[in-house]
Write a structure and sequence with these properties.
- By secondary structure, the protein is of the alpha/beta class.
- It has 19 helices and 11 strands.
- The strands form 4 sheets. The chain has a 5-stranded parallel β-sheet, with helices on one face. It has a two-stranded antiparallel ribbon with strand order 4-5.
- α2 packs parallel to α3, α9 packs across α11 and α17 packs across α18.
- The chain is extended and about 95 Å long.
Length: about 425
């Protein structure tokens, strides 16, 4: 078994952080087996190095190693990419194609960004993990494959499971062994080492002297939070190497390359949960407002009918003082109960509507006497509002159901059911 240091040299891994060393140790220990491995960590921490270590130290090292970025393949074609398809299986399938699981038989498949897999593909992947079987798209013939699956994700898997975006059974199949790589901000002692390595590489690549940081610039480098991790550090090193004429880098110069540096000393936000849909909250508020409006209209109808029946304005005003305050917006203790004919017309003026459910404006003959009944039909159907919201969202997203479902805060399956239900 190779040592951690030997593996670092072989795969050009820079750093002496304890968490990094532990991740490499676990990769070395798990490599000779065939169990599935899930590698977790933020974007840019170097997760792609661990599957290569595992494959190179396994008995499959002479077979194929295929890395697949699941997030970069469109949802409609990912099944074909992974499992292959038969000729004529769909439009454009002019010939039979072998998928990655068939091509990599006997080797290793690295599924990067596995948290982005569609749910239908997750079901197919689960079958491969359980019994090594899969079906090509458009085929009914079961095929066997013997592959070792190593997956990686920067998604919080428990949150994804909670939101039903990732299958719980698949997660536990993939994470027989879980290897976590620490973010760069937790590897303070490695930051300058990595920067020097990148600066040296770019100096050789572009045939120019290697840049060097002043002590204050090194301190600035260590204080920065590096949200993009190693990938961002490498990018900054390349920019400075190419653009700066002076090879001695001051803190002021380095600072100009660090975005949002003013927030670099703030503590990191851990476990920040993004709301599934702000639109869902807005919808709940809209429904509440509509129900409140309906209640106000009913109260207004009641008050008007009392006036029509009793013609006892003093008694009605006394019994409905709270409602009258609400209608007229009076906040002081003294409420002016004397209103002109125009005042009442303004209060009872209701919005015109082009549909059949309209409000009939009362005709006033004299003060508090009405010539006709008030016909009120509220158009506050929850079903109508739901249809309106779904229609607007589909129009705004140009008919894309997935985007509309995300905006509405519901699953794509629920949205499809609603579209069929309302014949949209």
């Amino acid at each position: 078994m190779e040592s951690v240091q030997a593996i670092k040299q072989r795969f050009e891994i820079i750093g002496n952080d304890l968490q990094l060393n532990r991740a490499i140790e676990k990769s070395i220990q798990v490599a000779p087996t065939d169990i599935s491995v899930l590698i977790t960590g933020e974007s840019g921490v170097g997760k792609e190095a661990m599957p290569k270590i595992i494959h190179s130290l396994s008995h499959r090292k002479h077979a194929k190693y295929i890395a697949v970025n699941c997030g970069a393949i469109p949802e409609g074609t990912i099944d074909s990419e992974l499992f292959g398809h038969e000729k004529g299986a769909f439009t454009g399938a002019t010939s039979t194609r072998n998928g990655y699981f068939e091509v990599a038989d006997g080797g290793t498949i690295f599924l990067d960004e596995v948290g982005e897999l569609p749910l239908t593909t997750q079901v197919r992947l689960l079958r491969v993990l359980e019994n090594g079987e899969f079906l090509k798209v458009g085929s009914s013939q079961v095929q066997k494959t013997n592959v070792r699956i190593v997956a990686a994700t920067n998604v919080n898997m428990f949150e994804a499971i909670k939101k039903e975006k990732f299958r719980e059974d698949l997660y536990y199949r993939l994470s027989t062994v879980e290897i976590n790589l620490p973010p760069l901000r937790d590897r303070k002692d490695d930051i300058h080492l990595l920067f020097r390595k990148f600066a040296s590489d770019f100096g050789q690549k572009y045939k120019m002297p290697t840049i060097r940081l002043e002590d204050e610039a090194v301190s600035l480098l260590l204080k920065y939070r590096w949200p993009g991790n190693i990938r961002q550090l490498r990018n900054i090193a390349e920019q400075v190497s190419v653009l700066e004429e002076k090879r001695n880098i001051t803190p002021e110069t380095l600072n100009s390359y660090l975005p949002n540096n003013s927030d670099s000393n703030l503590p990191a936000i851990v476990g920040k949960q993004k709301k599934e849909s702000d639109f869902s909250n807005e919808r709940e508020i809209l429904y509440k407002v509509l129900f409140d409006m309906k209640g106000d209209l009913n109260d207004l109808k009641k008050l008007t009918m009392e006036l029509l029946k009793n013609n006892d304005t003093d008694k009605v005003q006394e019994e409905n003082e709270t409602l009258i305050r609400k209608i007229y917006g009076k906040d002081d203790d003294e409420v002016d109960y004397t209103h002109s004919e125009d005042d009442i017309n303004e209060i009872l003026q209701l919005p015109e509507s082009k549909n059949e459910n309209t409000y009939t404006k009362p005709v006033v003959e004299d003060k508090y006497h009405f010539a006709e009944e008030i016909e009120v039909e509220e158009t506050l159907s929850l079903q109508e509002k739901e249809i309106e919201l779904i229609t607007k969202s589909l129009e705004r997203n140009k008919g894309k159901r997935k985007a509309a479902a995300a905006e509405l805060g519901i699953s794509e399956r629920t949205l499809y059911r609603k579209i069929k239900q309302y014949d949209l």
